[in-house]
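Workshop exercise sheet. Pairs work together: one partner reads the sequence aloud, the other fills in the structure field after running the prediction. Swap roles for the next sheet.
Pair: D.N. / O.F.
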Amino acid sequence: MWLEIILTSVLGFAIYWFISRDKEETLPLEDGWWGPGTRPAAREDESIRPFKVETSDEEIHDLHQRIDKFRFTPPLEDSCFHYGFNSNYLKKVISYWRNEFDWKKQVEILNRYPHFKTKIEGLDIHFIHVKPPQLPAGRTPKPLLMVHGWPGSFYEFYKIIPLLTDPKNHGLSDEHIFEVICPSIPGYGFSEASCKKGFNTVATARIFYKLMLRLGFQEFYIQGGDWGSLICTNMAQLVPSHVKGLHLNMCLVLSNFSTLTVLLGPRFGRFFGYTERDMELLYPFKEKVFYSLMRESGYMHIQCTKPDTVGCALSDSPVGLAAYILEKFSTWTNTEFRYLEDGGLERKFSLDDLLTNVMLYWTTGTIVSSQRFYKENLGQGWMTQKHERASPQSRMLVWCGTDGSGISESHMEALKG
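Structure field:
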């Protein structure tokens, strides 16, 4: 009994000490210029221009020629996805890509929603803007900015958008109806890449905040996964009075208290509110977290240090690009998929959807600029920048779910998966 009292007292003191060191801060809302050369004296064109995704026979012919020249390297016996993308299964993927995948049809699907571009801080920013097809009398939609990450794109939101903008017609409550804006991170897809060093998530957050103001939204909700999580968190740090709600489906836990709870979780997990699923995912920590990070983070070390080197190869080879990107859709969906010959890819995705995402990197030539985002954000060292040590302001609704759940209670099921 006395031992439990002592341990509880020590734990209480430790929690108080760690919490007292975590301070909520805002970040300074500065300005930037990421286009070529110096900022021109003339005022930047703030017009919003319609944009349409296009392709050509020449583009498709060039892709097919490069696929036809793919040099096959046989995998080791019984290696599955333990060494990376299994080249036997890769042959199936590229055969489908070459002979059955219809890029022109996928371009029509991409154009299903309205696309736009606008210049902000010297960069042409691409986004889709989807308004509800109908609204009940006296209702206004909630503006929602949704931000992707790497190796994703704005396309990853296509199937969730109808559930957010037209919930009633999809069997959901229409208590919350959203107006959805999905931009492409600069250097990804159709958004122009920075010409200068130092373009990080804070700069991106500021640009997306300016985008929302340009669209007429003074207050809005934001959602992000992967890099989008950090970008949206930075937006909440920059302009907390404008962010009404923050939803993250990849939580970047950097606070002192959160670190403490992970360390003490095996013994006091219930005290911290850990569920059985949390315990299953986190512990034993050495296997579930440490070894997993070591095994799956090789790409990050490359992209944090020399993104342009590997980028040269990926920009030249569509097959190499597909293997590099799609391997992440395997192991990041389920680490156990590495024991499967096909990486489990078609258990969760269609080849059409997977290859459409790859094509957004291939046709725009943005794999290098997308990888540079790692060097700009992580290549300076861990916890060296102010935004890494600040937390979002507590006045807003912050909803974090690692399973991709919930903008609101009524949308939890819609957002899963």
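Discussion prompt: Confidence is low (pLDDT under 50) at residues 2-11, 13-24, 401-417. What would you look at next?
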